[in-house]
Design a protein that fits this description.
about 300 residues; mainly alpha
């Protein structure tokens, strides 16, 4: 990987590792729905004009139904569920549970025959073991660190992870011929419009300076800037390498939660997190016999897996 690639990779690892912290702080004054509106609305104000100037919005009209479905699955649903879950779970635990996204993606790939379609992606022994190890890590995290009263928050995180894993598959199968920036900008705008009524009725009368800063950080850095940097990373190293940031983001979330919010570093985290990472690595590794074919398609389908 080039120096520019490493720089972009490091930037993305941090940028998509800090949303969990900023969400936790923002929820001191905002409801989950209002937070989603603020984050997507501000980012859309920046990205929609950029996409429009580049002519990336008009091509979306032909597939508006699929675009709307993608918006719900990848952004509108997961961001609300994640924010709701963080009302009860620590930011670090939420980030670690979201680390199960590659596991869910691997399971889905096994079922439908691969993210890109058209090539066999059935599990071999190594990948099956990886799934078991990763799911075991999730079980340790939930069993040790989550009380019965917080079970619904874990379910919300599970649906969030499903959305994050399914969104890229939808892009690769149904929206692959559309400009990615246009898809992201339109999805953010649609989400903001959808949550506008919620924000209109739940917007707080007073907002702490830290909360305001967190909202701006989520919108400007973790959303608008993040997507631009991610597209540059894809162009530099290809989508396959770009999505490896999924393995690094949770570590950043854990570090920030422990250091800045005084969240506990528990036995469940110490045992479960390494198991999740190992499981994700094994479950998403390519079979040797299919690597050459996969490399030929590496630059064809950009995948987006944000936090």
């Amino acid at each position: 990987m080039s120096k520019r690639g490493w720089l972009l990779f490091s930037a993305m690892a941090v940028i998509w590792g800090i949303p969990y912290l900023l969400i936790k702080v923002s929820l001191r004054d905002l409801t989950p729905g209002t937070l989603v509106f603020a984050r997507t609305g501000i980012a859309a104000i920046l990205l929609v004009p950029l996409a429009a100037r580049r002519g990336m919005l008009r091509p979306l009209l032909a597939k508006w139904r699929i675009l709307l479905l993608y918006t719900v699955i990848e952004i509108a649903g997961p961001w609300f569920l994640l924010s709701s879950a963080e009302q009860r779970l620590s930011s670090s635990l939420a980030g670690l549970l979201v680390a199960s996204v590659p596991l869910i993606g691997a399971i889905a790939a096994f079922i439908v025959g691969g993210v890109g379609g058209g090539h066999d992606d059935r599990p071999d022994g190594r990948r099956a073991v990886g799934l078991l190890i990763g799911l075991g890590g999730v079980a340790v995290l939930v069993g040790v660190d989550v009380s019965g009263s917080d079970a619904w928050a874990v379910v919300a995180i599970a649906f969030t992870a499903v959305g994050y894993a399914t969104g890229p598959m939808l892009i690769s199968r149904k929206l692959q011929d559309l400009p990615t920036l246009g898809v992201v900008a339109a999805s953010l705008a649609l989400t903001a419009i959808g949550y506008a009524p919620v924000a209109a009725t739940q917007w707080p009368k007073h907002m702490d300076a830290k909360v305001l800063g967190s909202i701006l950080g989520l919108a400007l850095i973790c959303t608008a800037l993040a997507f631009m940097v991610f597209f540059a990373l894809i162009a530099e190293v290809g989508p396959a390498r770009a999505t490896v940031i999924t393995y690094v983001n949770p570590a950043i979330a854990l570090l920030l939660g422990v250091l800045l919010l005084n969240e506990p570093f528990t036995v469940g985290i110490a045992i479960g997190f390494p198991l999740i990472l190992l499981g994700c690595f094994l479950a998403t590794s390519r079979n040797r016999s299919r690597r050459e074919s996969a490399e030929q398609h590496e630059n064809a389908i950009p995948e987006v897996a944000e936090a």
